[in-house]
Amino acid sequence: MTETAAAVLQPTEEAARRPRTAKKTMKATVFHGVNDIRLEEVPRPTPGPGEAVIRVTLTTICGTDLHIVRGEYAVRPGLIIGHEPVGVIEELGVGVTGYQVGERVLVGAITPCGQCGACLCGHHSQCGHGEGYEAIGGWRFGNTIHGAQAEYLLVPHAQANLAKIPDELTDEQVVLLADIASTGFSGAESGNVRIGDAVVVLAQGPIGLCATAGAKLMGASLIIGVDGDDTRLAMAKRMGADVVLDYRKVDVVEEVRKLTGGGVDVAIEALGTQQTFETCLRSLRPGGTLSSLGVYSGKLQMPFDAFAAGLGDHRIVTTLCPGGKERMRRLMEVVRHGRVDLTPLLTHTFSLDQIADGYHVFGERLDGVLKVAIRP
Ligand SMILES: NC(=O)c1ccc[n+]([C@@H]2O[C@H](COP(=O)([O-])OP(=O)(O)OC[C@H]3O[C@@H](n4cnc5c(N)ncnc54)[C@H](O)[C@@H]3O)[C@@H](O)[C@H]2O)c1
Ligand SMILES: [Zn+2]
Ligand SMILES: [Zn+2]
How would residue 16 be classed by pLDDT, with cut points 50, 70 and 90? Predict the structure, then answer.
């Protein structure tokens, strides 16, 4: 065999890193200001050391993207938004090993570096941008760096964040693991739900529905799902709720106390309002845990009676979506082995060109929408 032929048969490491396309630009969803996002042609990213570029094959829109578009959570104008990517490795930066261009990967919404003080203490989502901790610092996509609602995405700390997708799983089966399932399940995990527990989950939006599924995975024996939307209450049953309560029709605290003989072991807050936080607190038995996932704005108050004046042995925990490739691998295993199916939550599909329609349907909650698949 000639030297040239050998080189062809055994691609060099350099060839394995080479981009698959010569395209210099890409389509992307750019935030320009409140209620002003535009699909634009922007430069395609190239990876620096330790980084990777993926070609996005499927993404979605998060409730948090709505907060951004509506001006309730500030990001800089000019930023590409979105933080839930599934894709194919397009190009690898120097120093990223064990991957090949062309491999399918899932990347979590949160991209911990795996090396800072926060990461090494196990607080991956609070990953510091430099040294130490930074609140919410692990959430970079569509927050502090360009995000996933685009044809291509630059993945930072690629070695810690590219999770290979098993061949038998489709993009649709894994896309919701990047954020809402990781977050929802973590509500049950952080609440330390135990076999035989009674759990109430306040709000059955995408996050709450995944918290309901998470409580079931953790072994709860009675799961109470609360919402005010009939479609979502029906889906709550499908995701594992034993009982559903419509907060518009019943006194939730009273019902929960009746159903549990005094209160739940774990109450999961998945909306982010004073009302739902307080209902969670009032639904707990002494010694119970309030596990909070909602994003709050303004002031949150603790009524002394619901709080047993601080003497009820209650625990209140908050959790930001866990990310990183090991978390994604575990979640994909849960799906691969049939423990949970999230595809019923993907109710609508749009192309990237139609993303404005996707935002409209998702934002206005039209047509029974839960999550929208966006296919670049
Ligand atoms: N912790 C995290 O890492 C993380 C990640 C993503 C999103 N979030 C936050 O989680 C929250 C939920 O997100 P989502 O996308 O599921 O929201 P969503 O807006 O889609 O759903 C909210 C649900 O709450 C229901 N609701 C309204 N008032 C209610 C009440 N008083 N009692 C019970 N239900 C009520 C609505 O009918 C709706 O179904 C948001 O605050 C979001 O920003 C947190
Ligand atoms: Zn999100
Ligand atoms: Zn870190």
Answer: low
Tokens standing for residue 354: 């139609």
Q: Is 60 in the pocket of ligand 1 (CB under 6 A)?
A: no
| 284-292/86-92 β-pairing | unpaired
Q: Are 280 and 267 in contact (CB under 8 A)?
A: yes
E strand spans, 61-132: 79-80, 86-92, 104-106
Residue whose CB lies within 8 A of the most ligand 1 atoms, among 141, 177, 207, for a mutation test = 207
Report the relative pairing of strands 222-227 and 243-246 from DSSP bridges: parallel
**Of 347, 289, 280, whose CA–CA distance to 317 is shortest?**
289
Which chain residues have CB less than 5 Å from ligand 2, an ion? 62, 64, 179
| Residue 19 alpha carbon to ligand 3 centre in Å | 27
Question: Is any ligand 1 atom within 6 A of the Cβ of residue 171?
Answer: no
Give the residue carrying structure tokens 């029974």.
368
- Torsion sign over Cα 157, 142, 203, 134: positive
pLDDT in tens, 81-116: 999 999 999 999 999 999 999 999 999 999 999 999
